[in-house]
Amino acid sequence: MPDVVTRQVLMIFHAMFGVNVEKADRLQTSFNDDDLIACVSLSQDDLKILLRFGFPRVLLAPLLQRIYGPVLGKHETTFEDAVCEIANIVCNAVKKHLNEHGFSFLMNIPKIEHDFKSRYEKGSDDHLELEYVLQGERFSVDMITFYKRDVFANEAFS
Amino acid sequence: MTPETLKILIVDDHMLMRNMVENYCKAMGLINLEQCSGGEQVLKAVAAKSFDLILMDWGMPDMSGLEVLKALRANSKNDKTAIVMVTAESEDSRLIEALEAGATSYLVKPFSQEDFEKKIKNVLGWLKKQRE
Question: How many angstroms separate the CA of residue B85 from the nearest CA in chain A?
């Protein structure tokens, strides 16, 4: 699964923005104040997977200014829109991979979350943390799995 | 039918993708462009004027691209409009569903300008044959 996420992340940045992202080894435990966080959940009867994408605005600004120009490329709406679209593309690839292996996940539309500070998620059974580097700035993708007993108790899915 | 006169509608709820596709179209000399951010808006736009090519996102909050595609194909007025699903949905069953519902072709996100141009050139060939 980490390979599917990483392959998609690298492909998105290369194809859409013409830049090369590298996978990072050292992990940060918290989101930074500058991070924008988009969440997507994949769900089927017995389990849910929450994917969280944390991007610093300082990383997004130069990429988006190439597409929108200097003014609109720094606007908060364009940041949020871009993070959600990146999350959408990666999560669709994850869904495809899982469903080709016997699952039947449905995916919701990505949304921006403002309340997460820690990358640790209480009550999760499995937490995969991935981190990437682009031009010295880091961004992260966390994949958190909840099995049936946790699904309805966890506010992240309410 | 010249690139300058082709009427193209770009549909995506994400501004990023609408602007990227618009930039890619302009790089191909396709300049007669309009944008919509949702399904209801598409149906109104197509009722008001005809388009040669619609580049349609799949996952949108108000109506899915597939629902919009089916609604458009239900009207014979749109028979000669090329509709390309531009989508992150890459499961084979979903893509087949779109083709069976009348999509002319599909383009899976993420894609580069080169991927886009290759696909659109094929679709323009289809459009040309339809109008001969």
Answer: 14
